[in-house]
Design brief:
Length: 205
Amino acid sequence: MSAELRVLAVAGLPEVSEGMRVGELIADAAELEAGDVIVISQKIVSKAEGQVRKLSAVLPSAEARRLAAVLGKEPALVELILSESAEVLRAERDVLIVETHHGLICANAGIDSSNLPDADTVCLLPEDSDASARRIRTEITTAMTAGSGMGLAGHSTSSSAKSHPRPAIAVVISDSFGRAWRLGQAEVAIGCAGLAPLDDWRGRR
């Protein structure tokens, strides 16, 4: 077994918008092999799934306006943060630390405005990142074994699926998480498909 680890960027992807099939875009742009793990930015997944909101269309609640005044934030943004949160853990020093409905502990419920075409818009996390990863993985493996009639490593797709199973690839959806009141960021896997995210060491010695 090779001990080599390579990290390769996928070039040539278009600006992603709602309704696009992210898996098909990646399969068309990348030369993938069995065993590859494809790490996808949460932002393009959210954009493809329509998780972009216009702040001007959001009606802030009284609680959102109260917190916005304390934190110096846009009331509409605070309203979206609250709507995406199961619990507010801390609200101080210009930061809302929350537990999202997904169970993630992060600042501002993972909502941000970077890499979006319009200044008035923000991007939410996917509703179910594991489901998103499963769907994208299916799109990729389907595209890899279709099209020209040649699948992974030159296998003909004219034979039965049993003779030529879909290639074993995995998908991870990642997001950049800052640590509250600290410098720097870390990439966090918020969804995956095709791999076991945890190695259970209970009972091992």
